[in-house]
Amino acid sequence: MEDASTPGSILKKGTAEVLILSLLEARARHGYEIAKLIELRSGGALEYNVASLYPMLYRLERHGWIEGRWVEKAGERRRRFYKLTPAGRKVLAAQRRSWREFIAAVEAIALPGKRNALPGEGS
Q1: Range of 18's domain?
Q2: Structural domain tally of the chain?
């Protein structure tokens, strides 16, 4: 289990919004499904405890970026499904732009061959 101050947990916390909004872009989903899709699509590299995911969903809902509704199906327990709102789509587009810029900046510094050498540095 990661400590809350480790780089991995800090990065994970910073990615939650864009991951959730991205998964809700195609269709409405419930919290457990969102958590499982994050784990599956990341090849197990990212895992969100469902209990910690719900406060994030409630916060996104308070911002007006997602909308939740309870759905009851015969023989199944009641589930809250979340969908992306028009405001959420705008936020997602902005967050994707920010992430692309951030990743490009980190790669320019951290990955050999992806950056320009500064004066006095080797190639």
Answers
A1: 7-110
A2: 1
User: How many other C-beta atoms lie within 10 A of the C-beta of residue 45?
Assistant: 10
Cβ of 11: how many Cβ atoms within 10 Å? 10
Query: What pLDDT, in 10s, does the model give residues 95-105?
Result: 999 999 999 99
Structural domain includes residue 123: no
CA quadruple 59, 53, 32, 20: dihedral sign:
positive
Helix locations, 1-123, DSSP H: 7-24, 31-41, 50-63, 86-110
Q: What is the pLDDT of residues 47-77, one digit of tens each?
A: 888 888 999 999 999 999 999 999 998 988 8
Residues 48 and 8: beta-carbon distance below 8 Å: no
Residue 31's Cβ-count burial label (10 Å; 0-12, 13-18, 19+) is: buried
